[in-house]
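<instruction>
Derive C-alpha cells from the sequence
<data>
Labelled lines for chain and fold
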Amino acid sequence: MTTWSEVLDEMEQRLVDTEQVIGRKLMPIAPFVLPEGMGPIPEDQRERAVRIYAATRDAERRLTIALGQVGSELRAAQVGRPKPAYVDRMV
C-alpha cells in the first residue's frame, strides 16, 4: 500500500523534473496519477501537501510561459525563410 508520504515524495520529484525542463535541461515528465484508495491526507502531511500544491501551480505557470517563449522563437525563426518545396516525379 502506498502512503501519503510516498505520494508527496513523488510529487516533489516531479517538481524537480519540471524545474529542469523549465531550465532547458530537457527530460520527459511522466504524468502524475494519484494511486487509488488513498483516502484523506493525514493531518501531519497537510502542510507539506499545501506547499507542494503551491509549488506545482507556480511551476505550471512558469512552464506555460516557457512554452509560449519557445513557440515565439520558432515562429521568429521561420520569418523570411522560404518554405520547402518538393516535386514528386517518376525517375
